[in-house]
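User: Just a sanity check before I run the rest of the batch. Below are the structure tokens for the first item. I only need the designed sequence back.
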């Protein structure tokens, strides 16, 4: 009976222990599953958070870019408006510039005819070329204006030039070969090849006037200076400029 009781008692004790162990195992398994689920949920949460942060960052970047594009568009619109205003004034500008150029050409021609008559054919030819350009539809208004200004620049340069050339003067019905010297526009003189006679252009009477012998040396020096045969220095000459 003791043995039976002991066996029975061990069975009675073993069964609850087994149940406890089984329950513990089930709890452990459940805990593992729960932890796995928690880990999965946590991982998904982290992914969602990262994705959210990425979307937020992209949104901020997109906002900055959109603001940048908006400023560019605003600047382009302002430029377009400015161009439109400029285009609108082009016709008015041409209407003012074209008559101005014709007046400048007429004034240049009048000045050349009133000036000392050096290089007269070349200078008047330049004026005629400007008139031809003004009548040409293939030349832009800006190019026409540039060439008119260039002609004025050339005329201005004559004022400081010292030049020498050769030509022929008609004196008392005879043609005399002469050297011609020019000091800017202030003195235009000529001397015969034999150095015995000299003349100065009188722009008031539009004719050559014979100089006295006291000017022969000065005229000779002017011509030598113009030909770089002598250094520039003061000379005594009568002066007749354009009126």
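Assistant: Here's the designed sequence for the first item:
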């Amino acid at each position: 009976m003791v043995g039976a009781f002991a066996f029975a008692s061990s069975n009675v004790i073993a069964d609850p222990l087994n149940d406890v162990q089984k329950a513990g195992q089930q709890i452990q398994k459940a805990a593992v599953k729960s932890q796995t689920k928690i880990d999965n949920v946590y991982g998904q949460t982290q992914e969602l958070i990262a994705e959210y942060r990425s979307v937020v960052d992209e949104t901020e970047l997109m906002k900055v870019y959109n603001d940048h594009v908006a400023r560019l568009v605003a600047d382009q619109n302002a430029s377009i408006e400015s161009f439109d205003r400029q285009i609108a004034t082009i016709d008015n500008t041409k209407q003012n510039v074209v008559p101005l150029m014709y007046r400048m050409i007429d004034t240049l021609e009048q000045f050349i005819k009133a000036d000392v008559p050096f290089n007269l054919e070349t200078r008047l030819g330049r004026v005629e070329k400007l008139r031809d350009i003004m009548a040409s539809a293939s030349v832009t208004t800006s190019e026409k204006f540039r060439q008119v200004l260039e002609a004025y620049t050339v005329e201005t340069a004559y004022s400081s030039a010292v030049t020498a050339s050769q030509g022929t003067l008609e004196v008392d019905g005879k043609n005399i070969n002469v050297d011609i010297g020019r000091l800017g526009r202030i003195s235009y003189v000529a001397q015969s090849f034999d150095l015995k006679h000299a003349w100065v252009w009188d722009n008031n009477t539009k004719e050559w006037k014979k100089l006295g012998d006291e000017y022969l040396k000065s005229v000779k020096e002017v011509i030598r200076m113009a030909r770089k045969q002598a250094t520039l220095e003061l000379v005594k000459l009568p002066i007749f400029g354009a009126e």
